[in-house]
Amino acid sequence: MLSRSPLRSLTPLTRSRYLQTRHKSSLVLSDAQRSTIYALGTPPGKAGVAVVRVSGPDALETWRGMVKGSGGHETTPQPWKLKRCRIVHPQNGETIDDGLAVFFKGPKSFTAEDTVELHLHSGPAVIAAALAALSTFPTCRPAAPGEFTRRAFLNGRMDLTQVEGLKDLIDAGTESQRKIALRAAEGAIREKFDELRQRIISALAKVEALIDFGEGEEIEEGVYEDARSQVTEVVDIIKGYLNDHRRGELLRSGIRLAIFGPPNAGKSSLLNILARREAAIVTPIPGTTRDILELALDIGGLPVIVADTAGLRKTDDTVEQIGIERARKAVANSDVSICVLSLPDLQNLTEDGNNWKELITPNTYFLLNKADLMPAQWRPDSAVLRELGVVQERMWVSSLAKRDGFEVFLSGFASALQKQFGMSDDLTEATQSPIITRQRHRENLENATRFLESALAYGPDDIVFAAEELRYAANAIGKVTGAIGVEDVLDAVFRDFCIGK
Ligand SMILES: Nc1nc2c(ncn2[C@@H]2O[C@H](COP(=O)(O)OP(=O)(O)OP(=O)(O)O)[C@@H](O)[C@H]2O)c(=O)[nH]1
Ligand SMILES: [K+]
Ligand SMILES: [Mg+2]
Fold this sequence. Notes:
By secondary structure, this protein is α/β, with parallel strands linked by helices. 42% of the residues lie in helices and 17% in strands. It is found in: Mitochondrion.
């Protein structure tokens, strides 16, 4: 036990003002008067099934008015059980469709509200009639975009990262995107952020205990040091998350891959083989490609935006010059690049001024093409490769015109990408899966780090200021999940803390 007063240098006024202002409660929206919303949940148009969703306090009313038995009699929903029914207009009783209906009793529903789903035949007139019927209920109104999910969030069914994950899941076009989105939607990212926030709040609880009980009272020894080391740990964890080479964001938005190199090497031929169609013009004329041609492709389950670019050389042709300028920019802005070189030209390339060589980065891979024009068993000279800046560990040889070597290149390149962007095989392993999938996450984490670091910069006499920084840090993390507010700090003070008195 130790009797210490970390607040000894603080004026009583500063302290009481701090204690008064530290727990401002956030406004909690009341959902008592929420209306009932409805919308078509499937794409409009002709298809086997359309699902119309109704959510809110009067969802059950719509069931009573519209879901009837085969003889037109009233039905009572058995929650979560699909019921074969006749869907009718609530006012004139006219049958709209023969379908199915299900009642999800709140809070065990997506929105956590009472929800009715009508499964109809998907046709424009059927859907229009069902929506028109719903509009006759005085408390029902059409849902705004995303409003079902918004209600799920407001009702605490999901946090913001889950909302984002759900959106990404719907948008996912590749396996890696689907896996990351599903993990987010299931709450894996929320867990990480909640844990960070809990750790900060627990450190804050300790600091606040020092503020509350420090003056002339007894408190356990080492509390201040504990709080500090806890904060240091959190900073380390966050820095680990931030140091992810933007994998999550890249996988969400697509990895930018630029194909570059001297003219006529086979860059456009490579793009076409990757795309499995004649997307780019291929001719024996050097300088064929001028504009950037971009395609979204799936390479080894990764979303990749591939750009074919103009061959890089010195030229007096104005149009070609502009193309070359664009090519350079595209390569500079890419996340990865493939430099295509023509094997028969390799020797000459050492003397051509090499204005493409400066675009090589540690993220450049090399494809030495047109092997069919070289003698069998011929191997490029290591000294020449070194002079050209070709890294042999990231190099493949091909004959794209004959499709030779393409498969080997593609599988090697895909696994290099998977390795670099951390999506190899095991997504369930926490270390493999990126936590940050949006700039918003990154910004808040960076802010949190700044607040935590300035909290650490305060000495034991300034813990009131340190506490303030910790609150900001917790809020920054809370902003990611949408859980801002510091009510829980108070609880944590008394729950997690052993006061030595
Ligand atoms: N012999 C042989 N010819 C190839 C090979 N790959 C591509 N070519 C030919 O080389 C020529 C140039 O190919 P492109 O794909 O247009 O080359 P590029 O690098 O896009 O050329 P620019 O856009 O002009 O810079 C075409 O006639 C292709 O058919 C190969 O592996 N072997
Ligand atoms: K060409
Ligand atoms: Mg081309």
